[in-house]
Write a structure and sequence with these properties.
Elements (H helix, E strand, L loop, with lengths): L3 E12 L2 E12 L3 E5 L6 H9 L4 E10 L2 E2 L5 H7 L1 E4 L6 E5 H13 L5 H14 L10 E2 L5 H15 L3 E5 L7 H14 L5 E5 L13 E6 L2 E6 L2 H9 L2 H5 L5
Parallel strand pairs: 3-10, 3-11, 6-9, 9-10
Antiparallel strand pairs: 1-2, 1-4, 4-5, 7-8, 11-12
The structure holds adenosine-5'-triphosphate and magnesium ion.
The site of magnesium ion has 4 residues, from α1.
Length: 251
């Protein structure tokens, strides 16, 4: 049965002394796919970071709940253990830790127990194959020297191996070639179930192929200024964000 995973109430987020998000409310239930759109610099990545608990993004007001628990003050690793995952818009290179080891350590950190090595390696190999990632990459340092598209695929590999309850994908489609978008979309469809939820930040919506979208939100002026169904994506693609303001939308 569907249940409330994420609930954001009256959120205000600042970086240094600048307010980026304000009066933001959002509820995501299990089984749902939400899409977040909005102009460059509107604060979409900031919302992802705030949900994940990035220390640079200060929650000055409001609350974030996950499965009914107030996580506003919790650290990023606690949130990850509770089942929240963020795929970065610009994944960082981490020299010194191999992708395969990183996945294993992350799995152990999230589940609280060491995975069975052979089963884990088999699972990792088949997931890499499904995402058309060269298996040799498991031994390479995390994202170091990976191309832009390879970094995005490595993020989706992490999502599939960690199987979070809520996956936030920040512009995973940007930088992916036309075939890679299809492969990654398939991976996302494979992940999706009635027990988890997706918040997909995107500009071009290519990644949504074959994914039923429940809600489309537009972030503007620091808040969710408009929410609609999947038809809103096409309207935005045709008319841009201007028409929403022209329609006297709350901001
Ligand atoms: N660490 C930071 N330091 C200073 N300013 C920041 C920081 N992070 C975000 N900002 C500012 O906050 C605003 C929102 O940025 P954010 O990255 O959330 O936008 P976005 O909606 O994700 O944009 P895009 O579509 O270009 O990815 C921008 O004006 C940005 O410059
Ligand atoms: Mg962004």
């Amino acid at each position: 049965m569907s249940h409330e995973l994420l609930k954001i109430e009256n959120l205000q987020v600042g970086v240094e002394d600048k307010v980026i998000l304000k009066q933001l409310d959002l509820v995501i239930r299990s089984g749902e796919t939400h899409v977040l759109m909005g102009p460059n610099g509107a604060g979409k990545s900031t919302l992802g970071y705030a949900i994940m608990g990035h220390p640079q993004y200060n929650v000055c007001q409001g609350k974030i709940f996950f499965e009914g628990e107030d996580i506003t003050e919790e650290s990023t690793d606690v949130r990850a253990k509770k089942g929240i995952f963020l795929s970065f818009q610009n994944p960082e290179e981490v020299p010194g830790i191999a992708l395969g080891n990183f996945l294993r350590v992350s799995r152990e950190a999230v589940t609280g127990e060491p995975p069975r090595i052979l089963a884990f390696q088999k699972e990792m190999k088949s997931t890499m194959s499904a995402l058309e990632i060269n298996p040799d990459y498991a031994a390479r340092y995390l994202n170091v020297g990976f191309s832009g598209g390879e970094k995005k695929k490595s993020e989706i590999l992490q999502m599939l191996m960690l199987n979070p309850k809520l996956a936030i994908l920040d512009e995973t489609d940007s930088g992916l070639d036309v075939d890679a978008v299809k492969v990654v979309s398939k991976g996302i469809r494979q992940y999706r179930s009635e027990n988890n939820a997706l918040l997909i930040i995107t500009h071009n919506a290519k990644i949504l192929e074959g994914l039923p979208v429940d809600y489309v939100h537009v972030l503007a002026n620091g808040t969710i200024a408009h929410t609609g169904d999947s038809s809103l994506i096409q309207t935005i693609n045709e008319k841009g964000f201007q028409f929403l303001e022209a329609g006297g939308v709350r901001n």
